[in-house]
């Protein structure tokens, strides 16, 4: 009898030591991630949120501030403008409409939006999704951003007016001949969603993705106001010497190309559901994942990006682990990265309330390697 008690005591001690070691490792991992995130924020950003999922564990971290005048600490659940991450959401809705027989990937712009785009009969929905349509990017038209540069943050743009600005410029190349990132393409896809469904794009996103996945912090607002706790965006891009609060820029200027508001946890849920096959039938998910090479580190499918460089790492800094799938997003005063491995075993979401594109700073690469590759 005593022998069995003794054996049980030894087994219990071994289990306690093992659990203690695992717990210590988890604390150490979280501490290292927090230190790297703090260094990244200290390198020149107001604040950031980082969520890392791996080996059955989730690390949720925040650093810096969400609003400067009040010195409000950043919170993990804060909402952010997530820019072009919107494109994966829109592409998913388009492919759901294809599954229902309301659209075909080979439908042309002219068939769906008659008279809106010159020679639209040559441009297919597939080309819009994959950025191979050859259309001029409306954000490169000086008149589009001029109101915001002049301080009129509330300027409202209608999608068709923005498309008109784009098609006033010559096409960049014949449709289907090469890749060129195309915000205009996603405005057209948003309009096609509305034409095919008879409902607004915001309503379709809510009905098809937000509510089924219970994404409580995600929406496509038409008003500059972000409902709920959110991070204010800060930027020097509009001509000021110091970073100004640009949170209130009208989201109508990006709409289907980049107007989404979300949280780190919501984006994590969305990309796991998408890559896990919960939102699209298998053949359409394969179509979404069918990609073209766009750089030494990057390939792009239909609203979905496969990367080992996150558009911010040089070839020499490339992620030392596997490639990740998802999307990033940059808008004035905000940056978002939302990526997951194909087998869903590792996922990273980073949200920043400052300008990162082109100037991530030396602290970004160490943070990325640690977060993505462990």
Series of H and E elements: HEEEEHHHHHHHEEHEHHEEEEEEH
Structural class per helix/strand content?
alpha+beta
Using the coordinates shown, work out and report the CATH topology.
Beta-lactamase
CATH superfamily: DD-peptidase/beta-lactamase superfamily
Strand content: 15-25%
Describe this protein's structure.
The chain has 374 residues and is α+β, with helices and mostly antiparallel strands. It has one domain: Beta-lactamase. It is 38% helix and 16% strand. The N terminus is likely disordered.
Short account of what is shown:
By secondary structure, this protein is an alpha+beta fold. It contains twelve helices and 13 strands. The model is unreliable at 1-20 (pLDDT under 50).
Q: What layout of secondary structure does this protein have?
A:
Layout: H1 2-42, E1 47-54, E2 57-67, E3 72-73, E4 80-81, H2 86-99, H3 109-112, H4 125-129, H5 142-149, H6 159-167, H7 183-197, H8 201-213, E5 234-235, E6 244-245, H9 255-258, E7 261-262, H10 264-275, H11 282-289, E8 292-295, E9 298-300, E10 305-307, E11 324-331, E12 334-340, E13 346-352, H12 364-373
Antiparallel strand pairs: 1-2, 1-13, 2-3, 4-7, 5-6, 8-9, 9-10, 10-11, 11-12, 12-13
């Amino acid at each position: 009898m005593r022998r069995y008690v003794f054996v049980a005591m030894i087994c219990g001690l071994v289990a306690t030591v093992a659990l203690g070691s695992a717990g210590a490792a988890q604390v150490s991992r979280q501490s290292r991630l927090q230190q790297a995130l703090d260094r990244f924020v200290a390198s020149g950003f107001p604040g950031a949120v980082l969520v890392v999922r791996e080996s059955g564990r989730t690390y949720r971290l925040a650093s810096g501030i969400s609003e400067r005048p009040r010195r409000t600490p950043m919170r993990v659940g804060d909402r952010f403008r997530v820019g072009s991450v919107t494109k994966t959401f829109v592409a998913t809705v388009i492919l759901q409409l294809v599954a229902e027989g309301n659209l075909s990937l080979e439908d042309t712009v002219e068939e769906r939006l008659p008279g809106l785009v010159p020679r639209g009969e040559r441009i297919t929905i597939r080309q819009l999704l994959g950025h191979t349509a050859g259309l001029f990017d409306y954000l490169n038209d000086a008149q589009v951003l001029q109101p915001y540069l002049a301080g009129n943050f509330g300027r409202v743009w209608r999608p068709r007016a923005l498309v008109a600005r784009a098609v006033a410029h010559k096409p960049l190349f014949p449709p289907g001949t090469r890749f060129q990132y195309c915000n205009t393409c996603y405005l057209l896809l948003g309009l096609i969603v509305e034409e095919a469904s008879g409902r607004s794009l915001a309503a379709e996103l809510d009905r098809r993705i937000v509510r089924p996945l219970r994404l409580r912090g995600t929406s496509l607002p038409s008003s500059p106001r972000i409902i709920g706790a959110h991070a204010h965006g800060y930027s020097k891009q509009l001509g000021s010497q110091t970073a100004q609060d640009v949170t209130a820029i009208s989201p109508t200027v990006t709409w289907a190309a980049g107007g989404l508001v979300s949280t780190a946890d919501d984006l994590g849920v969305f990309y796991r559901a998408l890559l896990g096959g919960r939102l699209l039938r298998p053949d359409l998910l394969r179509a979404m994942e069918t990609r073209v090479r766009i750089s030494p580190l990057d390939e792009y499918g239909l609203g979905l990006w496969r990367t080992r460089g996150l558009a911010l790492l040089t070839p020499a800094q490339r992620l030392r682990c596997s490639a990740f799938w998802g999307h990033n997003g940059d808008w004035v005063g905000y940056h978002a990265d939302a990526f997951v491995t194909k087998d869903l075993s590792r996922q990273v979401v980073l949200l920043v309330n400052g300008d990162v594109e082109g100037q991530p700073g030396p602290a970004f690469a160490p943070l990325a390697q640690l977060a993505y590759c462990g």
